[in-house]
Amino acid sequence: PGTGLGVSGLVADGRGGWRVVVGEGGHVTLPAANAREASLLAVLRERFGHVSAERALSGPGLVNLYDAACRLDGEAPDAIEPADVMARSEPGTAQHSVQCEEAVRLFAALLGTVAGNVALTLGARGGVFIGGGIVPRLGARFATLPFRARFEDKGRFRGYLEAIPTWVITAESPALLGAARALDAAG
After folding, report:
1. How many helices (H) and strands (E) does the chain have?
2. Spatial contact of 128 and 118, defined as CB atoms under 8 Å apart
């Protein structure tokens, strides 16, 4: 998650190589796991019609989650940017906002749900990698958020998902590194 939400897979091609599975997974319907999430998604549905994962799991999505939390709490949302949501989500800071804190917590939870769904769909036993600009900026705080709990929260498939590792990509320009590797391999 960053400016949008991209989803892809890397699967063995059966000949010792790899094949990239490309799709539009960021536009799948975003599920709610509890009543508060259902209420927040209902606010987003009124605004957008279809609530895709990208509507919440992106920079603009952080602002959407903040706006929805404010509206449910009867408060007027400030006109803020994604970086402001993240900065104001830190407890104990001067501009702390409970709605920004909820937006970041919900972002991590929903990302865990979607990532777990992708892992189940692709059979991603080798792991799930989280890239983009948002999660790396959360740093060590990301481990305290409900991402992993929600990733594993799949009922009778909990054990299956518990065995799948998740990593945050922290490389400076991973897309450029991947493109360079693909060019080298093609050359």
Report:
1. 8, 4
2. yes
| CA–CA distance, 90 with 186 (Å, rounded to integer) | 46
pLDDT string in tens for the chain (187-residue length)? 999 999 999 988 899 988 989 999 999 999 999 999 999 999 999 999 999 999 999 999 999 999 999 999 999 999 999 999 999 999 888 899 999 999 999 999 999 999 999 999 999 999 999 999 999 999 999 999 999 999 999 999 999 999 999 999 998 877 788 788 778 878 7
CA separation for the pair 180, 91 (Å, rounded): 41
Token duo for residue 33: 């796991």
Tokens of 57: 């799991």
* 63: three-class secondary structure by DSSP: helix
Distance CA 57, CA 109 (A): 10
